[in-house]
């Protein structure tokens, strides 16, 4: 094959927002070993993509793999060179979009065969909203291509060849991927979901502007068509846990629903809401009108909440402890938020929330340090430097953790459920766990990987 080479490609990436660290990669391969997608999708080999991009090769099989980076950040902290891979992959996507290169690899390569929910996955990776000029093309193309995959899957409904039955508790990305893997290998699988509709955080946590909910519906319908039984409104607690005695294996994918608190005066006032509750309400009941909104936090959930709030017609200001160069959210997501009218003020913490019964505003105090010398979270404030901001709604996006109280010591827990990372098995022999319930907050890709890994252990266990 003759390669088409653009000698300027490397410089085009380096000169884009977030692309500068491109030149420091020395091909150690750590990112590829760490990337949860690379474990299942051959086309996404981050170090290989950088290598080919440096050579400027445009038509290599892997040169389109950047489209499949989901920006999960799993590789960032392990890169010895501090390469911001998700930012580089995003720079490549935006360059490709500008140069009118629709990601056609799906038409040529069946790379998504090994991904449990290809429609959702591809939508999140391609993120059509990132490229407004290009939106309708990508939008239409993704729908057509991935629906083709779903049709093909439907033609091949697997036979149940194993007598063992598996229960999956929770229908977020970890639960769905575990169920998908198991049913394809001939196991009978039942998903139990406590909400009215299945999908977990794909349904309630991700805002509709990032993931249209009809795509979640399609994936769940597809899973049911394969033979997975999905039961909703099924709450699990210690008393009902014994009911799972009839199952040969149980996979716990119960997510991360315990909200972190600010512990400041006024936190209980009406109008103060945690971001996960806010996003859930907006996703399940539809957008309602808002006026003056303050979002506290600077991570991905804060940006999602701010971008959702601005769609409710209000003015939205974000305040976070971190300085501008420390903000944990992706820069491109922040830029999207700014383009939509969200304002950001870094280096502020909340001193107290004002109001009698209903929130009226808050007092902020200057944050002069977020982490101590060992990198631990240890905010330090200048209490003299304060300011008042008026607000009708305050959204707290300051983190969440797994609520494992329902297990009532049935399996060992620490901050989350404790597992053997090689097998995903808990302290109970037939009980496995993954996703947010184990990790605290996992990306969708990490949760998907956990589900697949647990399924693979269960399959091996009952196939020997
Ligand atoms: S971990 Fe960093 S240095 Fe190593 S290959 Fe990946 S980007 Fe390059
Ligand atoms: S950001 Fe996530 S999906 Fe993208 S290369 Fe890194 S680990 Fe893989």
Summarize the structure.
The chain is of the alpha/beta class and 464 residues long. The chain folds into three domains: 9-150, no CATH class; 160-257 and 402-463, 3-Layer(bba) Sandwich (FAD/NAD(P)-binding domain); 259-400, FAD/NAD(P)-binding domain (3-Layer(bba) Sandwich), CATH 3.50.50.60.
Please tell me about this protein's structure:
The chain is of the alpha/beta class and 464 residues long. It has 3 domains: 9-150, no CATH class; 160-257 and 402-463, 3-Layer(bba) Sandwich (FAD/NAD(P)-binding domain); 259-400, 3-Layer(bba) Sandwich (FAD/NAD(P)-binding domain). It is built from 16 helices and 15 strands. The protein has a 5-stranded parallel beta sheet, covered by helices on one side. Strands 6-13-7-8-9 form a 5-stranded parallel beta sheet. Strands 10-11-12 form a 3-stranded antiparallel beta sheet, with no helix packed on it. α14 links the parallel β8 and β9. It starts with 8 loop residues before the first helix and ends with a helix. The model has no long low-confidence stretch (mean pLDDT 88). One iron/sulfur cluster is lined by residues 31, 34-35, 37, 46, 69-75, 85-86, 89, 445.
């Amino acid at each position: 094959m003759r390669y088409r080479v653009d000698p300027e490609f490397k410089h085009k990436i380096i000169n884009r927002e977030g692309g500068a660290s491109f030149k420091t990669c020395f091909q150690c391969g750590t990112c590829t070993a760490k990337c949860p997608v690379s474990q299942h999708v051959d086309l996404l080999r981050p170090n290989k993509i950088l290598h080919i991009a440096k050579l400027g090769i445009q038509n290599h099989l892997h040169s389109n793999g950047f489209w499949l980076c989901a920006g999960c950040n799993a590789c960032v902290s392990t890169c010895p060179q501090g390469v911001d891979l998700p930012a580089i992959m995003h720079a490549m996507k935006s360059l490709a979009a500008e140069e009118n290169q629709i990601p056609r690899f799906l038409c040529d390569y069946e790379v998504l065969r090994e991904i449990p929910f290809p429609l959702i996955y591809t939508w999140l990776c391609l993120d059509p909203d990132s490229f407004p000029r290009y939106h309708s093309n990508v939008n239409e193309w993704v729908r057509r291509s991935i629906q083709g995959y779903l049709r093909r899957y439907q033609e091949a409904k697997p036979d149940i060849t194993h007598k063992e039955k598996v229960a999956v508790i929770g229908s977020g990305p970890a639960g769905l991927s575990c169920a998908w893997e198991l049913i394809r290998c001939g196991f009978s699988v039942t998903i139990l979901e406590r909400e009215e509709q299945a999908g977990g955080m794909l349904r309630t946590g991700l805002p509709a502007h990032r993931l249209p909910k009809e795509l979640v519906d399609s994936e769940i319908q597809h899973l049911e068509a394969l033979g997975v039984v999905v039961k909703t409104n099924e709450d699990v607690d210690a008393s009902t846990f014994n009911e799972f005695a009839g199952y040969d294996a149980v996979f716990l994918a119960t997510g991360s629903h315990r909200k972190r608190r600010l512990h400041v005066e006024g936190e209980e006032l009406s109008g103060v809401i945690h971001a996960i509750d806010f996003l859930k309400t907006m996703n399940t009941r539809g957008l309602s009108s808002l006026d003056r909104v303050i979002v506290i936090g600077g991570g991905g959930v804060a940006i999602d909440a701010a971008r959702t709030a601005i769609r409710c017609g209000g003015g939205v200001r974000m305040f976070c402890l971190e300085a501008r160069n420390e903000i944990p959210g992706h820069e491109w997501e922040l830029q999207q938020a700014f383009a939509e009218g969200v304002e950001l003020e870094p280096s502020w913490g909340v001193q107290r929330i004002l109001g009698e019964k209903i929130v009226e505003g808050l007092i902020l105090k200057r944050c002069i340090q977020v982490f101590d010398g060992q990198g631990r979270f240890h905010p330090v404030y200048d209490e003299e430097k304060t300011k008042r901001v008026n607000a009708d709604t305050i959204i707290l996006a300051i983190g969440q953790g797994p609520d494992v109280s329902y297990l009532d010591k049935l399996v060992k827990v620490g901050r989350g459920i404790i597992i053997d990372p090689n097998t995903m098995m808990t302290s109970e022999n037939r009980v496995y766990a993954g996703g947010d319930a184990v990790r605290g907050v996992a990306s969708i890709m990490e949760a998907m990987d956990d589900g697949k890994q647990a399924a693979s252990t269960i399959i091996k266990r009952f196939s020997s």
